[in-house]
Each structure stands twice: as C-alpha cells, then as structure tokens.
Design brief:
Blueprint: H1 2-73, H2 80-104, H3 109-112, H4 114-125, E1 130-135, H5 144-165, E2 169-176, E3 180-187, H6 194-197, H7 201-212, E4 216-222, E5 226-234
Parallel strand pairs: 1-2
Antiparallel strand pairs: 2-3, 3-5, 4-5
Helix pairs in contact: 1-2, 1-7, 4-5, 5-7
Length: 246
C-alpha cells in the first residue's frame, strides 16, 4: 500500500511539474510575442517618421534655401524693408522645417553618429540645463536602429527633466562592456514616484523603446535628490528572459 501511495504521489508530482513547465513555456512565448510586436510597431513608426523627415529635410528645406538665395539676389529697387521682412520670414521657415524634420527623425544621425548627435543636443540645451556626456574610449558605432532609440530615450529624458524635475544637472554615461552596452542617464532634480507616473507618455515612450532593443532597465529614483535610468542592451539579437535589472 505504501509503495502504491508513493507511486501515485510521484506520478501526481510529475504531472503538476509538467503542467507548470508548460504554463511557464506558454507565458514566455507570449512575452516574446509581445516584445516582437513592440519591436515591429516601433520599427514601422520610425520608418514612416524617417520618410516624412527626409522629405521635409531634403525637399522642403532645399526649396526654401533656393528661394532664400534668389531673394538675396533680387533687385528690390530700394525696398529694403520688404526684402528684410521676407528674408526674416524665410529664415524662420527654414529653421521650422529643420526643427520639424529633426523632431520626427534624426535624419543625419546615420552619417554623423550617435555621440556627435548627442553632443549637438547638449549644445542646443546648454542654456537651459547643464548636461555632461561621458563615453568610454572603447565605444563603437552600433546598429542605426539602436542608436536612434538611444537618442530618442536621451531626448525624452532631458525633455522630462526640463518640464518637470527642476534639475540643474544631467549626466549621461555610455560604456561598451563585454556582453552589453550600458547607458546611464541621471539628474539632480525632484525625481518622481514611479508607480504614480508610469502611465504617462514620457515613461511609456522610454520603456517602449527600451523593450524594442531587447534591453534590461531599472529606475533608481530618490525624491528631491534625482532620478537615474540604467539600461543594458545585449549585443546579441536574442530577447532576454528579463526586462529589468536586479
């Protein structure tokens, strides 16, 4: 009787373990599927953004530049005020076209590179917040999709800092490790309670882009002392089993 009971218990335990294993495998497959959907969605968005941005940058921007050159060569017969006003409006249109193009997609990032593009962002924001960039000497150019996502994350983080945190400093660290690319972005602002703001578009946009890179991440926030975002992007193309850093 003892042997029979033991056999039944072992069989039942084996059955339960098999069910749990199948459930875990099903859950992992669903998580992987959702991550792939996020990746495909972001790639589709970036492709459309790039198409529109290039059109604005190359077509409209170039046309405005040509018009500006023609205007400067016109003989206005003494109507200097009219010429000056038109030139001012034309300059504003050119700047607006560039700004719209840049906000849609970092058109020149592929040729310029991530580091120089971040430095340009820092230069543009230098009058509003002090940003320091530290890049490891071993850093190598990454896939354009990864570089675009990282630039967007840094852009979103700094935008949130300027809008909400009252920070005076932002630090950006980029380092190539053996198995991953580590990126740390932090500030000295008021910070935030993650559970209270995680549904906001800023955090959603950042975390969606992190997921699209198969990356792990962790927020380290201390109220009134600053926020820190740690991202680790694997070099391989496989999806990790976790989406946060312990």
């Amino acid at each position: 009787m003892v042997i029979i009971v033991s056999f039944i218990l072992l069989a039942y335990r084996s059955f339960i373990l098999r069910i749990v294993k199948e459930k875990n495998a099903q859950h992992e497959a669903e998580v992987l599927h959702q991550k792939r959907l996020v990746l495909e969605n972001i790639k589709a968005q970036e492709s459309e953004r790039k198409r529109i941005a290039v059109m604005i940058h190359d077509d409209i921007g170039n046309r405005l530049n040509i018009l500006s050159l023609w205007l400067n060569n016109l003989d206005t017969k003494g109507d200097d005020i009219i010429k000056k006003n038109i030139s001012t409006q034309m300059g504003s249109l050119i700047d607006s076209a560039r700004s719209i193009s840049h906000s849609l997609y970092p058109v020149n990032l592929e040729s310029v590179g991530l580091v120089l593009y971040i430095e340009e962002l820092i230069a543009n924001l230098s009058g509003r917040v002090n940003i320091s960039l530290n890049v490891s000497p071993k850093f190598q150019k990454k896939d354009i999709f990864i570089e675009v996502q990282l630039y967007r994350i840094i852009q979103e983080f700094t935008t949130n800092v300027l809008k909400h945190s009252e920070a005076s400093r932002v630090w950006i660290y980029i380092k190539d490790n053996k198995t991953n690319l580590a990126v740390v972005i932090s500030d000295n602002g008021e910070s935030f309670e993650y559970e209270e703001v995680k549904k906001g578009m800023g955090i959603k946009n950042i975390e969606s882009r992190i997921k699209s890179m198969n990356a792990a991440h962790k927020w380290k926030n201390v109220l009134n002392k600053g926020s820190r975002l740690i991202i680790k992007i694997p070099y391989n193309n496989e999806f990790p089993n976790q989406n946060s850093i312990n």
